[in-house]
Design goal:
The complex is a heterodimer of chains A (299) and B (373). By secondary structure, chain A is α/β, with parallel strands linked by helices. Chain A is built from 7 helices and 10 strands. In chain A, the strands form 2 sheets. A 6-stranded mixed sheet of chain A has the order 1-2-3-4-10-9, sandwiched between helices. About 4% of the residues of chain A have low confidence. With 373 residues, chain B is of the alpha+beta class. In chain B, 23% of the residues lie in helices and 38% in strands. Chain B is built from 7 helices and 19 strands. In chain B, strands 4, 5, 7, 8, 9, 10, 12, 13, 14, 15, 16, 17, 18 and 19 form a 14-stranded mixed sheet that branches. In chain B, strands 1-2-3 form a 3-stranded antiparallel sheet. The N and C termini of chain B lie far apart (96 Å). Classes of the chains: A alpha/beta (299), B alpha+beta (373).
Chain lengths: 299, 373
């Protein structure tokens, strides 16, 4: 009896240990991938209040997590001589942002010193935020920046990134798409046409062949005796008389002509198939060897 | 016994024969040339005067429209036909007139043997003859041209030794003169349309057409030998009667003649039909421009009928190929050459296949080229 209780206790302990270990190994999945403890909202320029910053940070964490894209916002006063795009790219790379090995993520940089903004996209971030997509987002964000509503601008940015990521997943990334002109399948002449062509050849050949065959026949009965007729002495046309007896006339009214309307066939030739291609994101190599997409501008 | 009338050269005694090239009687040994009249004088042959049986104009009555054919034929006398015999072909029944001294002969129509069967004294004698104007050389050349200018002819037709067998024969003909009288009445109309505004007027003019007149025919030929194919003889027409001369036995010297054995009566249908067709065609062509022609009355009858019995020159050659006989004829006056040729089927279909393949491949190639445009 005692042995049984001991065994059960042992099993329980083992199970608990196992469960705990399991939990510990699973924990990393729930940790934010933001490059080993990095914040997503880095406000060096001090644009937001602490409360706003925390709220924004949390929001960004949610969106990043949900979309598996690191959404990072960095505000600075000076770019230390670098150009905005490089600064953004480098900051992203150096601080280890990005999900998975592809470092999926988006960084938004605001330089208060020269009033620059830049967006750096990496991995899936570049797929989700195309050049056109960034343009669209900035169209909405820039006015707020201009007004000084930095919190609103940042929140909107994060929201948009989340939205675009979702759209990309459900449909296709926000972009300008053009239909690919349908490539005409290479035309071939199937072999069966050779047989019909031979048939046509035989039919065409029959023309000279029949003609040659007809030439073999030269013996024919003569129908008339025209060659023996004395045309000078004949007057068979002589006693001719053409007499007009009467003329009857009928008439009919021609109905007003209805000119058929020309049918305007608007042939909107949409090529089917062949797919469509978006403009995508223009990529460039960052200083750390990673390819980044993105844009920048002034506000 | 009547003397054998031999046309011996007055200068060397050789056999005088009609020579188509010089159009005179010529001696093959010494090349002496004489016209028929001259030769007759030299040899003291009387020519026409010595013939017997200068018949009074013979009237051959005809069932057709009470047409009677006027005729002036005489008959051969013993003296004329002495030395000439009738030879009959054992196979095709052709009857040929040839000198008694002719050795074995082959039938020009079927190449079988002919045997002497009798005299032809008392036969109807031709009034006119068109002497040969095309000699054997011309005949052979015409034959070669005829055969070589056509495709898919079996090779045997081009063999030289066979071509040499071509023979000159005088073929008997009935020549018909007549006048066709036509009286006809037609109803016809002419239709035209015109527009005025939105009304379309259709004018139909009704006419009464009178046609009539006479059409003269001169020397419409129908061959008077049963065993010669009529369509073959019709195909080498026309003969120009203006070059016909009064008949004389001299012209037959050295030539074969087919024996007349079909009467004018039996021939007249053919002549009648051809003349009628000519008259009808002439009337029809005068109705041009009219539509809806309706014949109210059409009457045609023939008057002033005459027949002439004449011999016309024809070159004949027959060829056998695959158990079928092919016969060629050339008009001995004009040189017109006819003769149906058989089709060398193997050659024909082979050529057809090759041409079809070439054309087919060309079309296929063009189709492929088009895909690259």
């Amino acid at each position: 009896m005692r042995d049984l209780r001991k065994t059960v206790q042992r099993i329980q302990a083992l199970l608990t240990a196992g469960l705990l270990t399991l939990l510990c190994t699973m924990l990393p999945c729930f940790t934010v991938s933001a490059g080993a403890g990095e914040l997503r909202f880095v406000d060096r320029a001090g644009l937001l209040s602490g409360q706003e910053a925390d709220s924004l940070e949390q929001y960004m964490a949610e969106v990043s997590q949900a979309q598996q894209l690191d959404v990072v916002i960095l505000t600075v006063d000076s770019l230390e001589g670098k150009d905005p795009q490089t600064f953004a790219d480098d900051y992203y790379d150096e601080h280890g942002y990005g999900f998975n090995s592809t470092k999926d993520g988006v960084l938004f940089l605001l330089n208060m010193g020269e009033r620059d903004w830049a967006v750096s996209t990496t991995g899936r971030g570049a797929t989700v935020l195309t050049d056109h997509g960034i343009e669209q987002i900035m169209d909405e964000v820039l006015p707020r920046l201009g007004n000084g509503d930095y919190n609103g601008a940042f929140r909107l940015f994060v929201q948009k990134v989340g939205e675009y990521s979702r759209i990309a997943a459900e449909d296709r990334p926000v972009d300008i798409y053009e239909e690919i002109p349908q490539e005409e399948p290479r035309r071939t002449v199937p072999l069966r046409w050779l047989f019909s062509d031979l048939g046509i050849g035989a039919a065409l050949a029959s023309i000279p062949m029949r003609s040659a065959k007809n030439q073999l026949r030269t013996v024919r009965n003569k129908y008339n005796a025209n060659v023996y007729a004395d045309w000078q002495g004949s007057d068979i046309g002589g006693r001719s008389m053409d007499q007009l007896v009467n003329t009857t006339t009928t008439s009919r009214i021609i109905a007003a002509a209805t000119v058929p309307m020309s049918q305007h066939n608007n042939h909107h030739n949409r090529p089917t198939g062949g797919g469509s291609v978006g403009h995508g994101s223009t990529m460039h190599m960052g200083s750390h060897g990673t390819m980044h997409g993105g844009s920048h501008g002034k506000f | 016994m009547a003397k054998l009338r031999e046309y011996k050269c007055p200068d060397c005694g050789g056999p005088m024969e009609w020579n188509a090239a010089v159009r005179k009687m010529k001696c093959p040994y010494c090349d002496s040339e004489y016209t028929v009249q001259e030769l007759n004088e030299k040899l003291n042959f009387g020519g026409e005067a010595e013939t017997s049986g200068q018949a009074s104009p013979e009237e051959i009555s005809s069932d057709f429209d009470e047409l009677t054919w006027e005729n002036n034929s005489g008959y051969f006398s013993d003296e004329e036909t002495a030395g000439m015999r009738v030879y009959s072909c054992v196979s095709c029944g052709a009857q040929l007139l040839a000198p008694e001294t002719s050795g074995s002969m082959t039938c020009p129509y079927c190449s079988n043997n002919v045997v002497m069967t009798g005299q032809f004294t008392g036969d109807l004698k031709p009034e006119r003859i068109i002497p040969f104007l095309k000699d054997k050389k011309a005949a052979k050349e015409a034959l070669k041209k005829h055969v070589n200018s056509r495709r898919f002819v079996p090779r045997v037709f081009k063999e030289e030794n066979h071509i040499d067998e071509i023979k000159a024969i005088y073929v008997p003909y009935w020549l018909f003169d007549a006048k066709a009288e036509v009286t006809a009445l037609f109803e016809a109309s002419k239709v035209s349309t015109r527009r005025r505004g939105n009304v379309e007027y259709t004018d139909t003019a009704h006419y009464r057409l009178q046609r009539g007149g006479g059409m003269n025919f001169d020397k419409v030929p129908v061959d008077a030998s049963r065993n010669i194919a009529d369509d073959l003889m019709e195909s080498i027409e026309p003969f120009d009667f203006n070059e016909a001369v009064p008949f004389d036995m001299a012209y037959l010297a050295g030539f074969l003649a087919d024996r007349y054995d079909v009467s004018a009566q039996e021939c007249e249908d053919k002549a009648y039909r051809r003349m009628e067709n000519s008259a009808n065609q002439t009337v029809q062509s005068s109705l041009g421009g009219y539509t809806n022609v309706r014949t109210l009355q059409y009457d045609i009858h023939f008057t002033e009928g005459r027949t002439t019995y004449a011999l016309y020159p024809v070159w004949i050659l027959n060829t056998t190929w695959q158990d079928k006989k092919y016969i060629f004829a050339m008009n001995g006056q004009t040189g017109k050459f006819v003769g149906d040729l058989p089709l060398d089927k193997k050659d024909y279909y082979k050529s057809w296949a090759v041409l079809a393949a070439v054309l087919g491949l060309m079309i296929y190639g063009i189709m492929w080229l088009m895909t690259f445009l």
